[in-house]
Amino acid sequence: MQVQELKQTLFSHVQNTEIGVRIVKLLLAEGILRPDYADAFSKAKARIRNMDYRFVEENYQMRQALLEAYVCIALETPYNDFNTH
Predict the structure, then answer these.
(1) 42, 6 contact by CB (below 8 A)
(2) Whether pLDDT at 85 is above 60
(3) Which of 3, 22, 37, 46 has its CA 20 to 30 A from that of 31?
(4) What's the CA gap between 7 and 54, in Å, rounded?
């Protein structure tokens, strides 16, 4: 996807929301939509689109927190270090 296509896609999804337009303008100002980033972003979206997903619903908060910690440890997930919890 070219940068112009990415911009059009982003604007089409947020065209009626003030916050959405502000976010896109920020992305443009920060250079997030430069060609090399747009290419990597498109590749990542394609990779995610081809993934198989599974989920477990857990409505009880305590079990949900314990399940999240267990899965993080069992699957050795590199991007879940709980620094934001």
Answers:
(1) yes
(2) no
(3) 46
(4) 31
Q: DSSP H helical segments within 1-85, as ranges?
A: 3-14, 18-29, 35-49, 61-75
Q: What is the CA radius of gyration of the chain?
A: 18
65-74, Cβ contacts within 8 angstroms, sequence gap of 24 or more: none
CA 58 to chain CA mean position, Å: 22
Please give the C-alpha separations between residue 23 and each of 7, 42, 57, in angstroms, as whole numbers. Answer: 12, 19, 31
For the stretch 22-64, pLDDT in tens is 777 777 766 666 777 777 877 888 898 898 988 888 899 999 9
